[in-house]
Specification:
The chain has 380 residues and is of the alpha/beta class. The chain has helices at residues 5-8, 11-23, 32-43, 103-120, 141-147, 207-224, 263-284, 303-313, 329-333, 366-375, and strands at residues 49-53, 57-62, 70-76, 127-133, 158-169, 173-175, 178-181, 183-192, 196-197, 232-241, 247-248, 251-260, 287-296, 299-301, 317-319, 338-346. Strand 3 (70-76), helix 4 (103-120) and strand 4 form a beta-alpha-beta unit. The chain is elongated and about 80 Å long.
Length: 380
Amino acid sequence: MRISEAVQAQLARICADRSALHRIPEESGQERKTQRYVLDALAALEPDELAPCADTGVRAVFRGDGSGRCVAFRADMDALRITEGTGRADASEHPGRMHACGHDGHMACLLALARIVAGQRHAMRDHVVLLFQPAEEAVGGARRMIEAGALENPKVDAIYALHMMPDLPVGKIGTKAGALMASAGEVDITIHGRAAHGAMPHQGADAVAAAAHLYTLLQTTITRRVNPLEPALITVGTLRAGERRNVIADHAVLECTVRTFSNEVHARLLTYMQDDMRAVEAAFGVRCEMREPFGYPCLQNDEAEVQRLAQAAGDCLVQVQPKMTAEDFSFFQQQAPGAYCFCGCLDDAHQAPLHNQKFDFDEGALLYGVQLFHNLITFA
C-alpha cells in the first residue's frame, strides 16, 4: 500500500490532533472536552451533517454523488483510569487518566480522513459517515449510537474500524474474516446459603464449600462440555464469601468473565454454567442465581468486507490470529456488514502493550490507517 501525497501531507495535523487529544483523556461517558475538540475540528470542514450523538459522541456525514455505497468509519473516544508513565511532553493533564489504548490515535486518524474527504467530496461517489464513539471501554457506546440513529439517514451499507496494535510492526494491517475478537460476558453468580455455628456445620448450608465446588465445576465444564476446537474460557476474577472464621458462610459471590469466539457457544456456555449451579444446589442445599449485567457479542468480520479491506491494504496486509479481548464494534456489525483491523505500531522505541502506563506510538503509524480508510472510499 503506497502512502499518497495527500495522506502524507496530513502528518503534521495528525501529530497535533493526537497531542491535543492525548492531553485530555476522559473516561467512558465523560468525553466532554474530547467531544468539543472533535466537533470544532469537523465544523471547520463544513460536513453535510454534524451533530453530537449518544450524548458525548459525534457523527459527521460527507455526501458523495450518491452513485456508490454509504460507508462508515468509527473511532472510539474514551480513555482509561491509568496514571501515565510515558514521559511525553504532552502527557495527560487529567490525573489518573490516560489514553493507554490508542483511542487518541484513532480519533486523529479519522480527523485526517475527514480533512481529505472534505477536499475531495466533489469527486466522491460514496457517502461517508464518520462516527466518534464514546464509552467503548465500559458500557458499549456503540449500542447507544445505534439507538440514536447513527447508521441511518443515510443508511450505512458497510462499516470499518481499526485499532492501534503493538503486536504488529509499523506498516502492517492485520485482520481476518470471521471471528477476530471474542464475545465477552460479565457473569455474577451469587450463592445463598444458611449461616450456622462453625462447630455445627450440619445445621447450615455452607456457601464457601459450594463456591469452591462450583469453581472447579466451571473449569471442568470448559474442558469436558465445550468442543476443544471451539475456544472458550471462564475466568473467576473475584470470589467473596463469609464474614467470620467461626460462622458457616450464608453467602458467596463469584464474579466471572466468559469469553468465546462464537455467540452460539457463548449461549451454550451460559446454559452449562446454570447446570453446574443446579448441581451445587442439590449437593449443598444452597440456592444459586446468575446475573449477566453486561456483555459484548463476538466480533465477526464480514468476508466480503475483509476482501475489500485486503485489496485496500495491499502488501501491508497480514493474517492474524483471533484475540480473546472484546470490542463493542461487534454491535455495529450486527446492523451492517463490517470489517475491523489492527494497525501496527510496534517499533524499537515503542513496545509497551495496550493498557500499560507506558503505551505510546509514533504518529507515522497512523498514516497507514488513514490511507487504508481512504482506499475504501469510491471516487469517480
